[in-house]
Amino acid sequence: MQNFDAKHFSRLFALLSNPMRLEILQQLATHCCRDAQGGCCVSDVEAHIDLHQPTVSKHLKALCEGGILERRREGNRTVYAFSDGAALEQMQQFLRHYQECCPRKP
């Protein structure tokens, strides 16, 4: 794999190792991707999971900083949506590289 940066991948996988962040991503994918603009504000996410607003905000911020999500302002709301997918594509490439080394079962 060219341009392998262990620290970069370590940060991405650590970002997704938190169960609450995975739950937030699941809720965004389920409830907030219905159109091209897609996205949810903190209260939308909070309505679907058992976390308080400050905790949801903290996790959303981390997911934005990691390149998984992006945020935009809509009036007085901050809306979170999936980014262009570059970080997830990098992870997929990383996993495919090692999957090629695995023996195939007949």
Approximate helicity band: 40-55%
Low-confidence stretches: none
What's the number of helices?
A: 5
Order of helices and strands: HHHHEEH
**Strand segment tally:** 2
* Arrangement of strands in the largest sheet: 1-2
**From the alpha-carbon coordinates, what is the Rg to the nearest angstrom?**
16 Å
| Largest sheet features | 2 strands, antiparallel
Q: Structural class, please?
A: mainly alpha
Backbone shape:
elongated
Q: Tell me the span between the first and last alpha carbons.
A: 26 Å
Q: Report mean pLDDT, rounded to a whole number.
A: 85
Q: β content, as a range? A: 5-15%
How would you describe the overall organization of this protein?
By secondary structure, the protein is mainly alpha-helical. The chain has helices at residues 6-15, 19-31, 42-48, 53-65, 86-99; strands spanning 69-74, 77-82. Helix 3 (42-48) packs across helix 4. Helix content is 54%, strand content 11%. The mean pLDDT is 85.
